[in-house]
Structures are given as C-alpha cells and as structure tokens.
UniProtKB/TrEMBL annotation, chains A, B:
The active site is at C131, H244. It comes from the Bacteria. It catalyses: L-aspartate 4-semialdehyde + phosphate + NADP(+) = 4-phospho-L-aspartate + NADPH + H(+). Phosphate binds at R102. One of its GO terms (biological process) is 'de novo' L-methionine biosynthetic process. Its EC number is 1.2.1.11. This is Aspartate-semialdehyde dehydrogenase. The keyword NAD does not apply.
C-alpha cells in the first residue's frame, strides 16, 4: 500500500465475493493507502492475507468509516441498508453489491462497459447489478447500441457460487454423498443441487416470476436506459461451481446480420467471442471460471423470427458477475474524479 | 410369458434404453409369448434377466426376425437402417428409437398422447421421436389443441443419459475425479460434464443450429402436423443423470389464460402439473427420474408478450423420453389392431 492511494473499506470481506475483491485489488494494483476490512462481530478478529500483510477484520460500527474514501460492500442487503448511509455520511463513496439500492432512482446501477456516465450523478451510493444482469448487459450492449433490442427471452444456467462460498462447498459435499449412496446435505439450498437443478428459489411475485428473474428485467432496463425493453427470463440453478451461462433470444426491429453481431462482440470490451464451429467448441463454465471477460458464442440467426438472434454466454459469477464489476466501478469513479483525491 | 402374447424382439437390449425397455415390458405386463434379445456380435452370448428367466442375447442376422410380430429397436441409426427393413420384410412391425427414419414421409413419428392416429398409415416402421421432442410435445399438445401455438423458443437442460449408460457412469467418474483434484476422464463427451455444462455437441448446420436443436424443430412440426410452427431451440448438456428439463417460451395468436393452461395440463394424459407456489417447489430432475409423467410447472403469462406463456418441464429421458414412449407406441399399435394377432 502506498501513501498516495485511496483509503478503502471492504464491508463483508469473508464471503466469496469479499475474498475475490481482495484478490482483485491486489491483481489490478488498485491505488490503496489503507485497506480496512469490516464485517459482523461474528467475523471480527479473524485475519485475511493481503499482499503479504495479515489484515484483521473489524466489527462494523458507527466509527468504522472515519477517513474512508471508498467502500466496497458485499455483506447482503440489510447490512448495506444499515451501514452505507453511515459511510456516506462519513464522506465515503460506496459501491454496493447487494440488491438493496439497485432500483432506487437516485442510485446509479452501473456496468462500466455500458453506462459509466451514470456514475456522474451519484449521491454516495452506486449499486453493482445482479450477476446475471451484468453478464447479459455486457454481452448485449454492443448490439443494442447499433440497433436497439426490442425483446429478450433469457434462460439461465446459474452456478452455486451465486448463493455464496458455503453453497459451493455444499454442492461438492452433495456430489460426494450421492457418489457414496448417501443422502446429500442441504443447508444453503432447499433441494440437492448436485446431479440435479431447480428453478431459482427466490420469492415469486404475483405474475409468477421470481426475484432473480425480475432483477434481470428491471436492472437491464435501468442500465440500458430502456424502460420499454421487453424481457422475460427463466432462472435456473445448476450444479456448476462458479460460472453462470445464459441462452439469450433477442428480437430487433430489423434483421441483425449475424456477421455484424460477431464482429461487434469480437471488438467490444469485457466480452470475448468464443466460437470454433468446426470443433463444436463454444463458451463453457469451466473456461469462463477465473476469466475477466464474458465469453459469448454460437451467435446465430433465429430461425423462428426474421429479426431474431440467438446467442449463448458464460461468465465468472464471482468476477465479472460481482467483485470485478464492483472494482471496475471503483476504478471508473476514480477516473472520472468522483472519489475525493487522497 | 403367455401363449397368447406377441413375439417381440428387442434390437440393442444392453444399452440404457434397452434395459429400460425390458423393465417396462415386465412392469406394464406387455402381452408376450416370446422375447428375443438381439444385439451386435460383441454382446451376443450375454444374458439379461427378465421375469425370472435369463435370456441370452443373440447376434442379429438375416434369420433373427423370423416369426417376430414386433421389434423394439434401440441400437443406433446405422443398425436400424441395416436391420429394420429386414424385419419388416419378415413381417414384423418395428418401433425405432433412432433418428434414422424419423423424418421419412412414410414413417409415422408418434407420441401416443398426441398423434396416435398417425400409426394407422404405417408401412412397417414407426419412429420414436427424440427425447427432448417427446417431452415438449406431450406437455404442449393440450395447449396447442385449444389454441395453436405460433412460436416456441426452447432452452434445454439435458442429462447425461441421452448419451447412453456409459455417459452416465462417466459423469459420476468425472465428479469423483474433480472432488479428488484429479483430471476428469472424458470418453463419451468431448469435455468434462461434471460441475460444467456445454452446448449439445451434435453436428451444426449452416444456420448454426445443432442436430439436436433441429430435431426439436422438425420432429415437433411433424408430430403436431404443423409445418409452419416456428421453433428455435438452444440445447445444452448439463451434469444431471437421467432427466431432461426444458424452459419453453410459447407464443399464441391470442392471449392464453394461465388458469386455463394450468387446468389443461392438470387434466392431460402423460403430464402432471407440479406447482407449489408457496413453497417455491416446481419440477426437478430428481423428482422426474423414474416417473412416467412429464412434470410441468411454473406456468406464467410472459411479461414480454401479451400472447405469450412461459413454462418449465422435467421428464425422465430414458422413460418417456425413449423407452416408455416406444412401449406405448407398441401398445397403441396393438390397441389399433396394427400388429398381426398371435
């Protein structure tokens, strides 16, 4: 840590996203003069390694944000709701990974490759979108800019990591139990996920859509500034560890040439075209794991609609789907002069 | 086996579908006076248990079909192409599980709950549709009869069993290897499937659709007698053992009331409505495994289209997706007097 960097606090450093935040700050040489790890009193006193130091986790409290320039929060909605206003009051800018503030009109919801200018109007809190939304918007933005998308029908294949580090361990434990002909443990999930799958088990609204699906709908509209964009989604949890996949059917007002779509995706930041048609090789979760880019492929003209395109993507849920996007937001805030200079 | 039953041959009795055929013939008390097991010379001499007897597998040859009334074939396309014409010549009616004859104009492609009358025009061979098609057509037929479906956008979650018994064992072996931090074996599949997934690795056509996807398109049109039905599909292999799932987006000419769709599904043969909205419980592969019915649920108005419905299904790939449908075709043939009486 240098003397010229920013004073950063991570709220919720022990989770899957929190530990990835630490890795990314180091990997991306984020300009830090202080790194303060905050968590509930349950985790306080634990230490986490960071660039050769052992940092001690402090219980979050009313004095925790004194002198902090930037907060990266990844501790869940209610903790963000309790503490981020305190951090803002103390003068910090907060990037929040929870869903608590995402749809608040005065809170920018940002994917840096898509809508970085929304950061300029922040009131202290910037929301990091839901993982499925981030992956989808990064992939579709290059197309949407050329010809606005009219309708999206999404089916997701979501990994265990979206439910946290314990859920990832649980899927492995379940697989081992099933291989041993034993009853798989279920704590994080309501049903066994290993060798199984189920519709995303978030609360369902009156229209029959679950919260996760409505996040894709509402967040994408907000990020694209496209309130009329028609979206339907079916969100499914699958026994994969940490990369999400999405099958996306897109409808435009006019035909969208496939070759143009491929070129746009190949050139866009944050996405990587992965299409080896001869070898039938397209994006897979194991290849997206640990990668910054969202892998996109199998782009094809929808044979059921003249103005349709089908495409497939895989992206690391913990990286671009959460921690990386949050760090990129922090970097964009600095680049745009929106965090007070140290 | 009674003296009054039919003389049945199973071609390809040792595979995942073949062994399920044997179980179903016993379970459903299929009227048999003889059961002849045929396979390649590689499997000849092996025995399989059937209702207390040990039946010896015979190598298929030109005399194999003498005296046989009904052939259930599940040995792959080229074997069916070689031997079913021989069986027909010998006077047998053949139900073929391969894709070899499915799109031939003079071959009925039948899901007994949907188009049993197509059997009446058979020329000796009846094709059993592809697993994903069977599951989809059984579920959608009750709706399609009330108001013709205009367009289907499907995303599948296909189990390992579709690639055979060895593939199922391979997924387990892969999972064990990964849990032990070892390199997973890949023989049946080009990539590891355990804790991963990939687009269905069948050959891709000039439009970018794989064979499995085009089966859903072309077979559904044939079964529904709806050559103009617009269908697009994305077929994905997931690390599940033996039940397929499908996320289906449907478009009608007029709005289709959700309550009516639910009632129709609840009453239709071959499907079972599984919707516990309060407990967020919907069809899952582990619940569909071993069941005859295709489980359908999460039926909802598509919020992106006034005439759209979304639904979700799971069905046992080896049962209704293959062996059960074949046995049901055989039963329907008998019921309709289309197999010569013993």
């Amino acid at each position: 840590m240098g003397s010229q960097g920013y004073r950063v606090a991570i709220l919720g450093a022990t989770g899957a996203v929190g530990t990835e935040l630490l890795e990314l700050l180091a990997e991306r040489k984020f300009p830090l003069s202080e790194l303060r790890l905050l968590a509930s009193s349950r985790s306080a006193g634990q230490t986490l390694a960071f660039q050769g130091d052992n940092l001690t986790i402090q219980a979050v409290g009313h004095d925790s944000f004194a002198g902090i320039d930037l907060v990266l929060a990844s501790a869940g909605g209610s903790i963000s709701q309790n503490w981020l206003p305190v951090a803002v009051q103390a003068g910090a800018v907060c990037v929040d990974n929870s869903s608590a503030f995402r749809m608040a009109p005065d809170v920018p919801l940002v994917v840096p490759e898509v809508n970085p200018a929304d950061l300029d109007h922040h009131q202290g809190i910037i929301a990091n979108p839901n993982c499925t939304t981030i992956l989808m918007t990064v992939a579709l933005w290059p197309l949407h800019q050329v010809q606005p998308i009219q309708r999206i029908i999404a089916a997701t294949y979501q990994s265990a990591s979206g439910a946290g580090a314990r859920a990832m361990a649980e899927v492995k434990a379940q697989a081992q139990a099933i291989l041993n002909n034993k009853t798989p443990p279920t704590e994080s999930f309501p049903y066994p996920l290993a060798f199984n799958l189920f519709l995303h088990n978030t609360p369902i609204n009156a229209q029959g859509y679950c919260q996760e699906e409505m996040k894709m709908v509402n967040e994408t509209r907000k990020i694209f500034h496209a309130p009329g964009l028609r979206i339907s989604a079916t969100c499914v949890r699958v026994p994969v560890l940490r990369a999400h996949s999405e099958a996306l059917n897109l409808e435009f007002e006019q035909p969208f040439p496939v070759t143009q779509a491929r070129e746009l995706i190949a050139q866009a930041p944050g996405v990587k075209l992965v299409e080896n048609w001869e070898n039938n090789y397209f994006p897979m979760p194991i290849d997206a794991t640990g990668q910054d880019d969202v892998l996109v492929g199998r782009i094809r003209q929808d044979i059921s609609h003249p103005n349709g395109l089908e495409l497939w993507l895989c992206g690391d849920q913990i990286r671009k789907g959460a921690a990386l996007n949050a760090v990129q937001i922090a970097e964009a805030l600095i680049e745009r002069g929106l965090v007070k200079t140290p």
